[in-house]
Amino acid sequence: MRRIVSFILLGIGVFAVALGLLLRFYAYPQLAKIPLDNESTSVAEGDGITALVIRTVNGAPSPEIRQNMSLTSTTYVTGDLTQPEVKEDGDVAVYVEAIKTVDDATDLVVDASVREVCIDRHTTEAVAPCEGQYVETEQGKKVTADRNTIQQPGLSFKFPFGTEQKSYQFYDLSVRKPVEARFDGEEVIQGLDTYRFVMTVPPTKIGDEEVPGSLVGKKDEPSVHTEHYYEVKRTVWVEPETGIIVVGQQQGKQELLAEGQTPGNGTTVFEGTLRFNDATINDNVTKAEDNKSKLSLLTSWPTAMWVIGGILGVVGLIMLLNGNRRGGRYGFDPPLRRQTAEAANR
Question: Which of 91-100, 116-125, 288-297 has the lowest mean pLDDT?
């Protein structure tokens, strides 16, 4: 009976360890993937903002800088299932991101952009080849790239599953390159543990603009060549197990610099802070909690199985070895062996 129990414990232990390995190293990678058919919307809002708006006057565009504005920026992210990189069981997703920022009072569009990028479904880092990648920050001016070149390097949309307390490279659409997302501490958001990351871009030239002289304080000149400068401090709060950005906030400034001007002395065409609104934060918290609970089954359970399975296996093995040792080489009980020997000598 002792031998039977020891074999049962040993078998259960081995099974538990094997099942834990299967869950952690096979099932977890299958579940820890972003969906191919993603559809999500996030909304950021801000007040007291200075921004450039383009009105139409007598059929012609008329730029105007307004102050103390209330803006709403809406980001739509959808999966593009038509691209050749997308396969049902594959590791690459293709996402399209459309952003539109409008003045709440007039519904005038302050800024808009669309981009498409191929990303790794586990890390959300841009990958190549990518047939349909592009960036469009001005309507009708789509910038594409060779399919074998990563046009938008770095992370996009979220952080990796199992986010660590370290720096990451996150793509910035304005400067068209990745910037450092520096780990800045931990913070609890609505009962959810998050990691805070900060991305800082110093004043950086992002383009050249021909604008009316009146826009930059040169009323006597109908058109002036300017350099467009951008700077930002972007802060995101990330749920680490899922990599979901729960809260996002950015404090930005943009200037037009005429000849002879330096950053800080130009004409401000945007300055203010935009932050996810309450509805978006609540939705992100719920999404993070749901996905976290699903993933935890494949991270905490395997650990428990390894521990319990290891203990049961060791106990079963000890019982088996002790039983053999007491019974001698062939496992007979010593009294029975002595009786057999005595009978043979009679």
Answer: 288-297
- Amino acid at site 130: C
Beta strands in 221-326 (DSSP E): 224-239, 244-257, 267-276
For 230-248, what is each residue's pLDDT tens digit? 999 999 999 999 999 999 9
- How far apart are the C-alpha atoms of 132 and 188, rounded to whole Å? 39
Alpha-carbon distance 127 to 47, whole Å? 37
The helix (run of H) or strand (run of E) holding residue 98 is: strand 92-103
Burial of 26 (0-12, 13-18, 19+ CB in 10 A): exposed
Residue whose token pair is 């102050």: 67
Cβ–Cβ under 8 Å, residues 154 and 178: yes
Measured from the Cβ of residue 178, the count of other Cβ atoms closer than 10 Å reads 19
Q: How far is CA 55 from CA 61, 246, 257, in A?
A: 6, 35, 22
| Pairing mode, strands 39-57 and 267-276 | antiparallel
186 pLDDT band, cuts 50/70/90, is very high
Measured CA to CA in angstroms, residue 128 lies from 22, 37, 52, 97, 173 at distances of 30, 19, 36, 18, 18
Sign of the CA dihedral 142, 148, 149, 153? Answer: positive
pTM over 0.90: no
Q: Which helix (H) or strand (E) holds 326?
A: helix 300-327
pLDDT value at residue 217: 86
Q: How far apart are CA 288 and CA 273, in angstroms?
A: 25
pLDDT digits 0-9 by tens, 118-149 = 999 999 999 999 999 999 998 889 999 999 99
Query: Within 13 Å of residue 53, how many CA atoms lie on the same side as its CB?
Result: 20
Q: What band does 2 get if pLDDT is binned at 50, 70 and 90?
A: low
**C-alpha dihedral sign at 174, 178, 182, 187:** positive
CA angle 64, 66, 71 (to 5 degrees): 115
Reported residue count of the chain is: 346
